[in-house]
């Protein structure tokens, strides 16, 4: 037995710290204790589109999923987080609503580069831009000149620029042709080459400016050779993919099932297998939810029109269990899970000094869960505001029993701490 702490005592063969001085002592029994999951790609949409999601419901869903920190995307809220003023509006909207800690991404849009240093000063986690229409008119997409202007400002700041990497390729026919209820009609309108061309440009800019660049939600495995080469040449590039690209396949999407629509699209089973290869090799650094819900009407559930439907998949609550269920059959283990969901997702938004591992001096953010237990996703357990999800009725491995944020239990066996314990959290390099 080690003698790490004065007053240490032993219960059933485990080393236990003297409980006096602690608010709460938890015996996790046979369950697994890990640092809380950090999901650094969540669209909370609050304020402005809080009928789609909101800080309270999104963070409750996160807590129920073993997540102790989410990082909120700058778009779909109104205003978008593209200025210091808008960042303050968002921080106000979040106040008193948070069941887990929340960091914030800012946006790079044409002409806002003068706002970036002030937002960094305020503790923004980094920035995101779109290389194609974002889906909402108030968050404008950036061309190469806009991106270069932002990279010049970000150089030397330790901040990161993230890219929605799809480009309209000149001469490429992407007008949807065919039955709009068929998934293939949508898939054919967003071919792999749109991602590959965009990622090629990101890689070149990342190498030229040596500013940390990050590709969000990589969907095509065709870009993996470019990514590998860019990293091998020493460019500060990181890449994420999502639970849906690693779980779902185009061949299995039913007609009219618009809950499967997102951009870039879920591609073939072969592509999914190849993405897993990228996760295994380390070319893909992390896995996130890209939780992006909306109201049912915008998902055109009546008509099943894939082209008109909003693109976004809801899943923040189920990320840990989804990855765990799939990862074992792909030759990975619990250490990979920790790296993909926590270590690397803490690093990207600059939260590693306080989060992402269990160490003295860091926040006491934990998840306690039962890896071998199973559960079924049903509407009554879903905590996010709009319940539509492609994972309905799936049975997953990995039941979350407790989530702890800075030493406070926020979720325990289906029940929440009704006093929101989460805080806004800021980049610390
Ligand atoms: Zn997103």
From TrEMBL:
UniProt-listed GO biological process terms: allantoin catabolic process; purine nucleobase catabolic process
Keyword Hydrolase in record: yes
Cofactor: Zn(2+)
Zinc keyword on record: yes
GO cellular component, one term: cytoplasm
A family per Pfam: Amidohydro_1
GO molecular-function terms, A-Z: allantoinase activity; cobalt ion binding; zinc ion binding
Subunit and partners: Homotetramer.
NCBIfam families hit by this protein: allantoinase
Protein name: allantoinase
Species per Swiss-Prot/TrEMBL record: Capitella teleta
């Amino acid at each position: 037995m080690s003698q790490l702490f004065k007053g240490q005592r032993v219960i059933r063969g485990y080393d236990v710290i003297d409980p006096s001085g602690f608010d709460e002592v938890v015996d996790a029994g046979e369950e697994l204790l890990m640092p809380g999951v950090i999901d650094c790609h969540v669209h909370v949409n609050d304020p402005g589109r809080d009928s789609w999601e909101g800080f309270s419901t999104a963070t409750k869903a996160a807590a129920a999923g073993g997540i102790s920190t989410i990082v909120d995307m700058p778009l779909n809220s109104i205003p978008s987080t593209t200025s210091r003023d808008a960042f303050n509006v968002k921080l106000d909207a979040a106040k008193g609503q948070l069941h887990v800690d929340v960091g914030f991404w800012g946006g790079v849009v044409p002409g806002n580069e003068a706002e970036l240093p002030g937002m960094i000063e305020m503790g923004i986690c980094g920035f995101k831009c779109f290389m194609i229409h974002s889906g909402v008119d108030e968050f404008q997409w950036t061309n190469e000149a806009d991106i270069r202007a932002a990279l010049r400002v970000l150089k030397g700041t330790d901040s990161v620029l993230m890219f929605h990497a799809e480009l309209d390729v000149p001469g490429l026919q992407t007008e949807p042709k065919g039955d709009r209820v068929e998934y293939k009609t949508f898939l054919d309108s967003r071919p792999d080459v749109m991602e590959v061309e965009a990622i090629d440009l990101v890689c070149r800019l990342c190498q030229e400016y040596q500013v940390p660049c990050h590709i969000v939600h990589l969907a095509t495995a065709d870009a993996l050779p470019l990514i590998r080469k860019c990293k091998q040449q020493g460019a500060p590039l990181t890449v994420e993919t999502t639970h849906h690209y690693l779980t779902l396949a185009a061949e299995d999407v039913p007609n009219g099932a618009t809950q499967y629509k997102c951009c870039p699209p879920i591609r073939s089973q072969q592509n999914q297998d190849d993405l897993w290869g990228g996760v295994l090799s380390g070319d893909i650094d992390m896995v996130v939810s890209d939780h992006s819900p909306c109201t049912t009407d915008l998902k055109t559930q009546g008509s099943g029109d894939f082209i008109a439907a909003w693109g976004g998949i809801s899943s923040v609550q189920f990320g840990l269990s989804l990855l765990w269920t799939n990862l074992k059959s792909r030759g990975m283990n619990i250490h990979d899970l920790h790296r993909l969901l926590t270590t690397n997702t803490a690093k990207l938004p600059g939260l590693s000094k306080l989060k992402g591992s269990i160490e003295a001096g860091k926040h006491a953010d934990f998840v306690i869960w039962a890896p071998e237990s199973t559960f079924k996703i049903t509407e009554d357990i879903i905590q996010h505001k709009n319940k539509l999800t492609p994972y309905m009725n799936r049975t997953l491995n990995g039941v979350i029993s407790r989530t702890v944020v800075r030493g406070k239990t926020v979720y325990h066996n289906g029940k929440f701490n009704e006093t929101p314990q989460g805080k806004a959290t800021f980049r610390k390099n």
